[in-house]
Amino acid sequence: MTGQPTEGGIPVYQWRCAPSHLRTRRQLEAEGLRRNGQDIAGKIPFRRYGREQVAHLYDINLAATKRQATPAQLAALEKATREHQLRAAERHGVDRAEFEQVGDPGPGWNTSTSALAGYKATGNALADSLARGAEREGMDR
């Protein structure tokens, strides 16, 4: 028999030899699709870092579009992420209360004390560079 080799009833394809309608899970996700509960339509064995691995393939015609998260789900994810970050900060010795302060961030964030506060750009890069060079002290021309 000269048909397609199978493994447990699932067709096995060589690298880059699968039909064009089959995609991996990540390829489906990149196209905004999901598997939609379908069974594996094919396999591609390959070696990575000296280990035998298998890429499972799914039929794009049976795939469905990805579902969008609801605002409540997004809010729950945001809350969980914030809690995770706060606990990580506490493990590194930062108090949780420091993250909940709202207001002036302090003198380090004052833009008027910036090194570029008095600098006026002319739009010409060479002229601006020469002007900065002339303002520096202890620089010979």
* Shape field: elongated
Strand content: 15-25%
User: How far is the first residue's CA from the last residue's CA?
Assistant: 86 Å
Helix-strand sequence? EEEHEEEEHH
- What is the C-alpha radius of gyration, as a whole number of Å? 29 Å
Low-confidence parts? none
Count of individual helical segments: 3
Percent helix: 25-40%
Major sheet, described briefly? 3 strands, antiparallel
Mean pLDDT equals 82
- SS content category: alpha+beta
The total beta strand count reads: 7
How are strands sequenced across the largest beta sheet?
A: 3-6-5
Brief write-up:
The chain is α+β, with helices and mostly antiparallel strands and 141 residues long.
Description:
This protein has a three-stranded antiparallel β-sheet. A two-stranded antiparallel ribbon has the order 1-2. The chain has helices at 25-30, 71-91, 125-135; strands at 6-7, 10-11, 22-23, 33-34, 42-48, 51-59, 64-65. It is 27% helix and 18% strand. The longest helix is centred in the middle third of the chain and has 21 residues, at 71-91. The model has no long low-confidence stretch (mean pLDDT 82). The chain is elongated and about 75 Å long. Strand 1 (6-7) and strand 2 (10-11) form a beta hairpin. The chain starts with 5 loop residues before the first strand and ends in a 6-residue tail after the last helix. The chain is α+β, with helices and mostly antiparallel strands.
